[in-house]
Amino acid sequence: MPVLPILSYLLLALGLSWLVALPFRLPTEWPTHLVAFSVEALIVLAALALVPALQSRRVRHLVAALVALTAMLALGDLMIRLALNRPLNLTLDLPLVRALYDLATGTFGLWGGLALLAGLGLIPLAAYGLTMLATRSVQRMARHPGVRAAALLLALTGGTAQILQAEKPEYFGTYWPASTSAGVTLASQWTQFRTLRTVEPAFRAAEAEDNLRDIPQGRLLSGLKGADIVLAFIESYGESALTDPLYTPRIGARLEHFAATAETAGLHTASGWLVSSITGGQSWLAHASVLSGLTIDSQQRYDLLTTGSRRTLERYFAKAGYRTVAFEPAITRPWPAGDFFGFDATLSAADMGYRGPAFGWKTMPDQFTLHRFEQTERRLPAGERPPVFAKFSLIDSHAPFAPLAPLVAGWERLGDGALFHDLPPEGGEPDSLWQDTGRLRQAYAASLDRALQVLQSYAARHVDDRTLLILLGDHQPPGIIAGDTESQAVPIHVLSGDPALLAPFLDWGFRPGMTPAPDQPRPPMAAFRDFLVQGFSPQDDRRIARSGAAAVELDGARQSH
Predict the structure, then answer these.
(1) Burial of 469 from C-beta contacts in 10 A (0-12 / 13-18 / 19+)
(2) Residue 545 resides in a domain
(3) Residue 276 lies in a domain
(4) What does the pLDDT read at residue 84?
């Protein structure tokens, strides 16, 4: 029996099956996980060697196309797991291709981003070519009986190992050599597609239930006493920033400094948690969950929401006599879904009047966005204009986390932002950061610290007893930053010069200060719309804001602090 063809087949089959399995094992803290072999690949190669009817060029092309498709799915699955901490779902994730293009070109420049995307596109092409060569070699070697026997034995061994892994995992410890992830991922796409088709009826039923619609006009949000509401989402601000030892020293110190600055400015503070609908990215889903009072955890549910009739938070504020505005510095192209939310004004990047430089992917600094709001919406005293409900999508702490705009001490100097041309950016270049996980995590902490520092300065300068500032994270950062955690909780902070405006939050489980406690309640983001509207809409003629009690509670907490 010739030994060389058998050895050649074994090397080829194990090599190809390893390449198919590898992307599904990344990332991992266990090096042994990287030595895995695709059972599906071993079975397909055995079939090519054993079944004469399959030994044709057409079949080889079919197998190569299947491997190329698997390579694309594996690549997409890897990126989704790294960014969003969940498996790939093609039905939901295909729209993210445009977001990938924006992130790549924003991080590495147009040509650098295109080169990166082209490199990713070459991976399935390379998989196709390698598979064509491999299958042709297998069919040629299959003339030897020993090769056919080896192919059958190898496929049976892989299948047996997979069964044992499932039935007796304790036998394998941390090393699981057999992998069926390729087949599972392929099959799951069809299963997920069929499941999603059943979502719409249940979603429409939930959409129709609205506990707020019957609140009388005279009571609607009257507990706010006409205070301006500033709702600001802080990008990638999740529980990990307050609990992970990599970030806690810096972010914890920032929150303590923030609390001290707020107290000096005569502001009262309280903090709590919300559980985001997503993790790692897709901030607009979290924003939609807060505004709609529904859990929006996928693009499909977002599309259903924005083609429906749900009355969102800002529409209740409009009904109560507020001017509603949204500041969206990350939006750089038409946003048809914006019409659904119905803000009186939605300012995208092009509408801000910014004349400074972009900072990598970030179109402008958060400081300028907040400055623009004050100059355009709050220039007149509160009594000479309608109260304002403003929603912000802040981006200083958005990936790739660098470069950062410097903080300008004198806000009056900001003007149209042109001064940033003369100020050196901070934080380094993003292309070098993403080559080193440690530096990337440091850059994340620095960008989040800067985002909070800007808000600290803003609060001290612009928040008073006629303002309620609500700061909340949108989601946990990507898994490569957040680490091995299942938490989707995000901090939420409220600040005002009027302690009565914080009373409903204290009743909801918040505690005074800028640092939420681990054991505080963690309601879902979808609960926030109803809480805010009901909490500030009195049930009778008495004001729900317990000014005296709230002031005593907050002042007592300050003294104990």
Answers:
(1) buried
(2) no
(3) yes
(4) 67
